[in-house]
Amino acid sequence: MVGHMKRRNFIALSGAAGLAGLAGCLGGDGDNSNQLSWHAGGQGGTYYPLSGDFKTIVDAETDYSLQVQSTGASTANVGSLNREEADFALIQNDVAHFAYTGTGIEELQGTEMTNLRGVASLYPETIHVITQADSGIETIDDLEGQTVNTGDAGSGTQVNALQILESAGISEGDFDEQNADFDTATDQISDGDIDAAFVVAGWPAGSVENLATTNDISLVEISGDTRDAVMGEAEWFAEDTIPADSYDGVEEDVETVSVQAMIATHEGVDEDVVEAVTEAIFENLDDVSRKTEFIDVETAQDGMPIDLHPGAEAYFN
After folding, report:
1. What is the pLDDT of residues 208-241, one digit of tens each?
2. What is the end-to-end Cα distance of the chain in Å, rounded?
3. Disulfide: which of 30, 61, 119, 170 matches 280 by Cβ 3.0-4.6 Å?
4. Interatomic CA distance for residues 198 and 201, integer angstroms
């Protein structure tokens, strides 16, 4: 299914300055019992700013405070949850399945992180394949022989990228693979250091928006036979479309695929805590600034690949 993944150590905590606006706790009495660790993703994607919205809500509406950390995203986050170093995290639903069953990704094979629990599905995480407008890359097939950033090593983005390339008949040895976060990848495109990059995030993704304001970019479609092959080999992919004008210079709809973003926790987090956090978020969705057209209590269990935490179940039921 997925090719050979390199093992990497993930750095969960970014610099203190980058977290200053998000980290904090209620009160000021030095009692940390109400602080909950929430692992997000890179600052150039959707996880990090969305987690900032959730922090604002939870801090205001509950007795708890979220400590949001920028991380390597899905694969790093399931490890943090499994080790109970994080109370909550945002992850992809396919990576949740791989982690729970110990399958799919070399980094996760044999681990069977059965203490993971689901909280809620949120929104489609759209596969962006970005290139310069004059690169001559028009289809996934054109990535053969090119230098391609597939995302952080071991990340959900890299997993998705390699699955898509493999479905198109492009093996790991058929292109020069680079690994970096979204912001670095878009800088590499701007500088001409790579030919294309995969970004997996809800549109509009901040790093892609920034690139499009200074460069003429193109988004490569995943459509037709390639999309059929991708979806046929990995059931967690769904059809998706990046609407026209989501990014400067992209004037037509772009057909692609997506996975699902979700909130996860672990079985060691108290039921009352999970229920309080879940209720605060879903009762205050008007205060969420991103992906509001998708995040809804009615769809919060769509595509849930692991057992629901009793606290979340108490709220949704």
Report:
1. 999 999 999 999 999 999 999 999 888 788 899 9
2. 36
3. 61
4. 10
